[in-house]
Design brief:
The protein is 70% helix and 0% strand. With 101 residues, it is mainly alpha-helical. Among the domains are: 35 residues, no CATH class; 33 residues. The protein is elongated and about 105 Å long. It starts with 11 loop residues before the first helix and ends with a helix. Pfam families: Ribosomal_L14e (PF01929).
Length: 101
């Protein structure tokens, strides 16, 4: 946002004209800080039922995300298993009972 150059001691009418000319209100509403403050105000004005609905919406969204993630994870594991060459059988040391005979 750029500064509006208005001389000291000007009338309210001049400031209002400069404000409208530079579209300050619209620029403010599009800024990140204004959006953050509006979200905070909205959250503060929520009643108990609104908080409940929000919690349920978050739960359902997170469930969808979690299921999608697990599906992609399993696909990735299968692909990694397929690409990995099979290891030959490990040579094991003979048991103690076989060595002593």
């Amino acid at each position: 946002m750029k500064k509006i150059r208005v001389p000291m001691g000007t009338s309210t009418q001049v400031v209002r004209k400069a404000w409208k000319k530079n579209d300050v209100t619209q620029k403010w509403n599009e800024s990140a800080l204004a959006k953050k403050l509006a979200a905070r105000r909205l959250k503060a004005n929520m009643n108990d039922f609104d908080r409940f609905k929000l919690r349920r919406a978050k739960q359902s969204f997170n469930k969808v995300v979690r299921l999608r993630f697990l599906k992609l994870k399993s696909i990735s594991k299968k692909a990694a298993k397929k690409a990995q060459p099979e290891k030959s059988e490990k040579k094991t040391a003979p048991k103690k009972s076989e060595c002593s005979k």
